[in-house]
Specification:
This protein has a single domain, classed as Orthogonal Bundle (Ammonium transporter fold), CATH 1.10.3430.10. It is built from 17 helices and four strands.
Length: about 450
């Protein structure tokens, strides 16, 4: 009998980097399915538990199809002629996934290091980031957006909004060429989701008065389980973005947890000492704000910087959620899960604080064949970093807000944006003909 001598992998592939990248991608995927599905179901009124989870499941699957057929190319591919700094060429990646990560689709020079895993790992890792972005956005629209509208909105948003920020900051486009940095998506993911969620919520309109006035969580223990998946899944979120299983990945994971613990404690103590009480929902908000705040900074700041980010990314959104959201224009917007506060504001804070606190001693994207990259913030004598971080924030907010407004208006011209009055009154049973749980005594 003759046996073929097969090598387990080509010389350029690192099993360690590949294994960590696939693990990190799976952790990020678990943040959405089941993490955010469980979190949303627990935080919403019981009549909306199933609908909230189904919106997450649909968005995850729809994004995967769009991503592999054209949106990955728009985010990380060859630049469009005439728009070389803004967007990549839409194209499928289903035949290139066995190639080396960086070569799967040609990138702008300097956009990424020479990666040591296959294109399949890179495509999947970036997919779970795109999926969680639109899922976070959906948290502002729960309890009234029609499923038909959501079914159209998700692929349109992933096509027309997400790739622009991803290409400009991560794919070698204009903002990255200016020197703006976003370690793992404070701008590309969280600011994008926050501003888009607020705009869409303003257009769709609020929930029915009863749901908005009495929106107590249906199952806080379920929400804690979802929040826990989100927290630990974030180790892959920030730990996977060096693209190497190295010291910077470990530092990013430690910084992520340090900032998150600090932020959750800060929110809790603010609640306690303002007589709001040690509320679970507040602790979850603080946790999310900390995770979001450290995301753009995780590999650029040291541990002291992580603590500072956690404090600021918690205290400021606490103030905006408990004060700003109660007045004027902000009160009229029914941002159900507060994505404006815990994602838009927290992501912006983290991105700006990167411009202040990024330490040149932190080295990111270190490859065996290439030099590392370090970033210095204003505190370390580089005021320009803070200025380009401000510019990047303004660009993402302006483009994503305008583009989302156009998309939600287009969807509204094609299908009803809101559920019917009967569906709004009854909830899951009217929308899905199913219930998350049978009522007590249903079998008797």
């Amino acid at each position: 009998m003759t046996y073929l001598a097969l090598t387990p992998s080509p010389p350029w592939l690192s099993p360690g980097d590949t294994g960590w990248q696939l693990t990190a991608a799976t952790l990020v995927g678990l943040q959405s399915v089941p993490g955010l599905a469980i979190l949303y179901a627990g935080l919403m009124k019981r009549k909306w538990a199933l609908n909230s989870a189904v919106m997450v499941l649909y968005a995850f699957a729809a994004t995967l199809v769009v991503w592999t057929l054209w949106a990955y190319g728009m985010s990380f591919g060859r630049p469009i002629p005439g728009l070389p700094d803004l967007l990549g060429v839409p194209q499928p990646v289903l035949s290139e996934v066995a190639e080396q990560g960086r070569a799967a689709i040609p990138l702008l020079k300097g956009a990424m290091p020479d990666l040591r895993f296959s294109g399949a790992a890179l495509v999947y890792f970036q997919f779970v980031f795109a999926a969680i972005t639109v899922i976070i956005l959906g948290g502002a629209l729960l309890g009234r957006l029609s499923f038909k509208a959501w079914a159209l909105f998700v692929p349109l948003w992933i096509t027309l909004v997400y790739p622009v920020g991803a290409f400009m900051l991560w794919g070698g486009g204009w903002l990255s060429q200016l020197g703006a940095v976003d370690y793992s998506g404070g701008y590309v993911i969280h600011v994008a989701a926050g501003v888009s969620g607020v705009v869409a919520a303003a257009v769709v309109g609020p929930r029915v008065a009863g749901d908005r006035e009495n929106g107590s969580p249906g199952n806080l223990l379920l929400a804690i389980a979802g929040a826990g998946l989100l927290w630990l899944g974030w180790n892959g979120f920030n730990g996977g973005d060096p693209y190497f299983a190295n010291g910077d990945a470990a530092a990013a994971v430690l910084n992520t947890n340090l900032a998150t613990g600090t932020a959750m404690l800060a929110w809790l103590l603010l609640d306690v000492f303002t007589d709001r009480g040690p509320r679970v929902s507040g602790m979850i908000n603080g946790m999310v704000a900390g995770l979001v705040g450290i995301t753009p900074a995780a590999g650029y700041v040291n541990g002291y910087g992580a603590v500072a980010v956690g404090l600021a990314a918690s205290a400021i959104p606490w103030l905006t959620m408990n004060k700003l959201a109660l007045v004027g224009f902000f009160r009229r917007i029914d941002d159900v899960l507060g994505v404006m506060h815990t994602h838009l504001f927290a992501g912006a804070i983290g991105g700006l604080m990167t411009g202040l606190l990024a330490s040149p001693a932190m080295v990111v994207y270190t490859a065996t064949r290439g030099a590392g990259v370090s970033v210095a913030g204003l505190v370390y004598g580089n005021p320009r970093q803070f200025l380009v971080q401000v510019l990047a924030l303004l660009v993402i907010v302006a483009y994503d807000g305008v583009a989302t407004f156009a998309i939600i208006k287009l969807v509204g011209a094609l299908v009803p944006l809101r559920m019917t009055p009967l569906e709004l009154e009854i909830g899951d049973e009217a929308v899905h003909r199913e219930l998350a749980m049978e009522p007590a005594g249903a079998d008797s």
